[in-house]
Amino acid sequence: MTSPREALLPGTERALLHRVAVAQSEGRAPSLVGAVVRDGGMVWSGSRSGIGEGAPGADTQYRIGSLTKTFTAVLVMRLRDEGLLDLGDPLEGHLPGTGVGEATIAQLLSHTAGLAAESPAPWWERTPGSVRPELADVLGEHPRIHPAGRRHHYSNTGYALLGSLVEAVRRRPWEEVLRSEVLEPLGMGRTSCHPGAPHASGWAVHPWADAVMHEPAVDLGLMAPAGQLWSTAADLCRFAGFLAEGGERVLGAGSLREMRTSSAPAEPGDWDSTYGLGLQIVRRNGQTLVGHAGSLPGFVACLWADVQEGVAAVVLGNATSGPLPAVVAADLVHIVVDAEPRFPEPWRPMQEVDGGLLELTGAWYWGTSPFGLKLVADRGLELYPLSGPGRGSRFRARPDGSWRGLDGYFAGETLRAVHGPEGRLIHLDLGSFAFTREPYDPAGGVPGGVDARGWCAPPS
């Protein structure tokens, strides 16, 4: 049986390296690094290089572009969890004078605030931040181009605002807050705003010839929270483990689940891609992946994690265009999951069984539709349709004897067991729906009552 973080099989490792080699060759990347995480730890890394800078490794720094946004989002969620702000707060309440109106912090995190994608010319990714010394220079005269909350429109300037929000609340530079509150606790000592050896050089590859040109690596100033960071495959593997499991020194598992939940509508025609709070959510190879892609002139990057399977992958390259790290990283995850599927946890009986809860289990009917109700760990319940598609959810027990829906149609709704005067279980009340032991049970409190004639043959 495969134990946690056991080394990958040789055939799997060869398949991973082959995928990286094909991507580097066909994508004409000066170099490409890939790495895989399983159950929280890096279990493989490999690279290919076609330039004389030496073979890169898992400790070689690359610029990660918009992957930086996820780090900024973690900082904002920390402020929320400390009670220093609410995601529903308008940004103006914490950072006045920006001109973004009533756009909320949650909308900025999910790119639904209606802000422009880029700052005014010249293009911020190839010019120093000194060109934009104030937020007004970042936003321009007309920062909003869509009504807030109406659509997903990716905005680099929105994350510049979030970085400035962090600085305003913490009263320290964004870079300093990031280092002390995220990078150091996670042991990400090779992630920084400026490169440190060994690091890759950024290159542009000529589209019609095998020639290269150096790309500038500028300090982005106020735009840094949108794309400044440099990191390594090893460090990003640590970050991938954190995004899947959480870490109480940085951000709890509940807040990470919130970040991984879709907060933005998919663009028309792209139903396999949406956005959470600082995290992209995609469907690739039949799997749901969360993470982020990134690029800056000279560099491309991607981190994808399949939380359910406990597998993540990181891909870093040093070319302005060519290799598609989002595709390659998804393929690396798929190779591992397909070749070495995760063993399920062994079934174990409950340590303690509550007879009152056991009474709730079994078949229930909403109208004529059959449902099963199962008792799970920590006094939780799971409701699911017994035939065909339908409305189901998991429920967490509350101290008052009710349950709160965790997902699905009944997320956030309250489930209660309704008993009669003699203590007999009559029905379940779920957000005004009455679930009875028999279809339309006359004694089950069915809204609108039950016809006194009961079940009968239709008139001929």
Automatic annotation (TrEMBL):
Keywords: Hydrolase. GO terms for molecular function: hydrolase activity. Residues 25-335 form the Beta-lactamase-related domain. SUPFAM superfamilies: beta-lactamase/transpeptidase-like (SSF56601). Residues 354-437 form the DUF7586 domain. The keyword Signal does not apply. Signal peptide: none annotated. This is Serine hydrolase. It comes from Streptomyces pacificus.
